[in-house]
Design a protein that fits this description.
Length: about 425
């Protein structure tokens, strides 16, 4: 086992601040469980069952969008906006859900804390129900081989490894035990025959990253890394990458660090400095794509789409983010993207002036919600479709959240229809791409 220590500790976080951030995370990821019980008590809800509503199966044409000609690159998108429309939509019982693709159908799975809700498979063309099944498991952010048991003394983390020669599986000894709410800010991924598990350090302690063999369950390496809460962890053709998320870490005092472990390597290397916040980060092949915020003095932040290439994270481009949502670290804000390096990356935005707002966390509530495509080759953004407020635009939040959307069958599918600002959805909508 190799121990690597960059000799930097995560800054101590007062417990009340961490608790507030935990509440924010749960809101962002739509995992507030008490909301369902509360709504049941007050009788808020809608009937079970499915059907078309609003624009379902056709819809009305979107407006011309002429109010957005002032945005960089927006004028070239106005013509396509005039014909954009909601292709189809379906409604269902309010709950916390996660969207996915399964067996060629659109999967709508209830998150934990919503007993009795169906797992549903919808036709991607019509959004009619193909299959409904109450016996389903809630989606998980963890790899299947990582086991987290909730005990009174904390969350105990182990891995289940599989011997490829014999097919036998075994459960490892406990690798770590964290305070229960600290595991919510930790995480794990799997790739290249190993589990990578990040342990957020307790108050006044360092955070660590371990590499565990997926074949034997043996602990291969342990690194100390000041990656803060809920870091981004990705594996691409050049190895393992980790960097601070919107919450930041110690190295984000001036700029965040992008750390790297080469395939089969035993060194955690700081390859590049990013901005003071990274809103999202994804990888493909030898490329890393990210939305990076940099401090701009009294002007707040500058927002830029980055593409990095190779094991040294060489900068390919840094493209201004003119049409994307701004960021906020308050309740109910922040955004993610869905898609890939072939089709592009997609997200939602609601900008009245047609450009990213100068203030942090603002949404123009009177503007239509628009679907944005980010070109992986250049980082430029363009409007793809619009949902006018008159045509169910109020059913969308102005930012996209984790597990809220998927790209499939040549279209963008998104959960919509929040109830009273609770983390629940009542609709699935299909938009053209």
């Amino acid at each position: 086992m190799t121990w690597i220590d960059p000799e930097v500790r995560d800054a101590p976080v007062p417990e009340i601040e961490v608790l507030i951030k935990e509440a924010r995370r749960r809101q962002r990821k739509r995992q507030v469980r008490a909301a369902g019980a509360l709504l049941a008590l007050v009788g808020v809800g809608c009937g079970a069952g499915f059907g078309f509503f609003g624009n379902g199966g056709g819809g009305r044409r979107a407006p011309n969008g002429g109010g957005d000609r002032g945005a960089a690159g927006a004028s070239s998108s106005v013509a396509s906006l005039s014909s954009a429309r909601v292709i189809a939509s379906a409604s269902f019982e309010p709950a916390g859900y996660a969207l996915g693709v399964r067996h060629g159908e659109i999967s709508v799975a209830p998150e934990g804390g919503w007993p009795g809700r169906n797992c549903l498979l919808l036709s991607p063309r019509t959004l009619r129900v193909v299959t409904a099944n109450r016996r389903c498991t809630a989606p998980s952010d963890l790899p299947r081989g990582v086991v987290v048991d909730d005990y009174a003394k904390g969350d105990q983390v182990r891995v289940r490894s599989r011997n490829p020669a014999t097919g036998k599986t075994k459960l490892s000894a406990p690798l770590m035990t964290l305070q229960n709410w600290f595991w919510a800010h930790s995480g794990a991924i799997e790739g290249d025959g190993a589990f990578w598990i990040y342990e957020l350090g307790p108050y006044r302690h360092r955070s660590s990253l371990i590499e565990v063999s997926a074949t034997t369950g043996a602990l291969l390496h342990r690194f100390y890394v000041p990656a803060g809460e809920e870091p981004f962890m990705k594996i691409d053709a050049d190895g393992f990458w980790i960097t601070q998320s919107g919450y930041g870490g110690t190295s984000c005092a001036r700029s965040c660090t992008l750390w790297h472990v080469a395939p089969g390597g035993d060194r955690l290397v700081p390859e590049r400095a990013l901005g003071v916040r990274t809103q999202w980060l994804t990888v493909s092949g030898h490329s890393i794509y990210a939305d990076v915020l940099a401090a701009a003095g009294d002007r707040g932040f500058t927002q830029t789409i980055w593409r990095l290439e190779g094991d040294r994270a060489r900068v390919v481009y840094r493209t201004p983010a003119r049409l994307l949502p701004s960021t906020d670290f308050g309740m109910g804000t922040g955004y993610v993207v869905t898609g890939n390096a072939h089709r592009g990356f997609f997200t939602l935005t609601q900008l009245g002036s047609g450009s990213t707002l100068a203030g942090v966390g603002g949404c123009a509530s009177t503007a239509p919600v628009r679907l944005i495509r980010i070109d992986p080759a250049t980082g430029t953004q363009s409007y793809v479709a619009t949902v006018p407020l008159a045509d169910d635009g109020h059913a969308f939040d102005c930012h996209l959240y984790s597990d809220q959307a998927v790209l499939d069958d040549g279209a963008f599918f998104v959960l919509a229809g929040e109830i009273n600002n609770f983390p629940e959805y009542t609709q699935v909508v299909r938009l053209p791409t």
